[in-house]
Design the sequence.
């Protein structure tokens, strides 16, 4: 050891190989040693794999082997579709409200804004456009009470909605639900017109039209242990076979796809999940899955440009910036609300 040579090491035993004639079970992958990775997303955006309930079992019935194909990575297929629409929304809490009720005490609430829109990607002409952007503003109070706001500038109007219960988290849930309903409505209009739509987030409506829910973070495991290993084996532009989630009218086809592999990433880095309504039928859902696996990696974001790369797609990031601009300056909105409240109190 004094002459610079390394101490002898004990070599690990070779990986077990299947016996001659033995068939590897579906989803078999050679087990690799666990390693620690630093999540590529910026911390303020959470993580692609959430640590709070990371990969806990999925809710609802899950059925694998619905596609009738070997359980191995499937290359995507670009069918040359000329236009792809991306739908997304952004939200913001503008102010915290308190209804000072002498009878039952303070009742919390919020003033909040959200914007929804779509980007049409014209692939042949290599340009994109934002269509149907819309902004809504809500004044929400708990305990089923309606907020009566003082007069505000004409371009700053909040619609009052009552939120049942006394859980403050219900305020944000109501805001999120309102945004999701607006996203779903826009997604449905575009899909009904014949445009293929990639909607950011899980599906909201399960109608038989050409639309896909695009889920970029993972809070549930949708595959049993003997199939989950395929996700880490996916290469860019590949997908898993289809599986189904849910029952009845909530049943949908789902699949995992990989956008890219990033240096230092873990086995799920660059992985997203797609959803399509079961009402489409197996053949059309498989075609949409093939399309997303081939086309979405083309618009995956780069780490030096997006803190949620590669899952936050470039058209979606551009749409989010545009919608945040339409929401206006949050500081000015808060100032207008405070000024209106003070004028009413002084009156």
Sequence:
């Amino acid at each position: 050891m004094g002459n610079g040579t390394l101490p002898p090491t004990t070599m690990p035993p070779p990986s077990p190989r299947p016996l001659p004639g033995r068939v590897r079970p579906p989803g078999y992958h050679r087990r690799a040693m666990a390693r620690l990775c630093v999540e590529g997303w910026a911390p303020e955006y959470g993580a692609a794999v959430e640590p709070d309930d990371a990969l806990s079992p999925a809710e609802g019935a899950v059925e694998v082997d619905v596609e009738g194909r070997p359980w191995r990575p499937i290359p995507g297929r670009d069918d040359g579709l000329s236009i792809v629409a991306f739908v997304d929304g952004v939200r913001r809490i503008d102010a915290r409200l308190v209804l000072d009720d002498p009878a039952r005490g303070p009742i919390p609430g919020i003033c909040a804004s959200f914007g929804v829109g779509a980007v049409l990607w014209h692939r042949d002409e290599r340009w994109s456009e934002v269509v149907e952007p819309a902004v809504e503003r809500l004044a929400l109070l708990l305990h089923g009470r309606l907020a009566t706001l003082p007069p505000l500038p004409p371009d700053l109007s909040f619609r009052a909605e009552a939120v049942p219960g006394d859980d403050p988290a219900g305020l944000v849930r109501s805001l999120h639900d309102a945004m999701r309903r607006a996203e779903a409505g826009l997604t449905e209009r575009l899909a009904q017109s014949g445009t293929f739509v990639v909607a950011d987030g899980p599906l909201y409506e399960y109608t038989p039209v050409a639309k896909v829910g695009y889920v970029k973070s993972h809070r549930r495991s949708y595959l049993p242990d003997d199939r989950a290993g395929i996700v880490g084996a996916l290469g860019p532009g590949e997908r898993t076979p289809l599986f189904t989630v849910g029952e009845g009218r909530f049943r949908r086809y789902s699949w995992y796809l990989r956008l890219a592999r990033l240096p230092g990433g873990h086995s799920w880095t660059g992985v997203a999940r797609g959803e399509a309504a079961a009402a489409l039928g197996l053949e059309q859902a498989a075609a949409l899955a093939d399309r997303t696996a081939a086309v979405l990696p083309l618009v995956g974001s780069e780490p030096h440009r997006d803190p949620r790369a590669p899952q936050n797609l470039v058209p979606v990031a551009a749409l989010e910036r545009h919608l945040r601009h339409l929401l206006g300056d949050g500081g000015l909105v808060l100032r207008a609300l405070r000024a209106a409240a003070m004028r009413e109190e002084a009156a």
User: Anything to note?
Assistant: The radius of gyration is 24 Å. The chain has five helices and 14 strands.
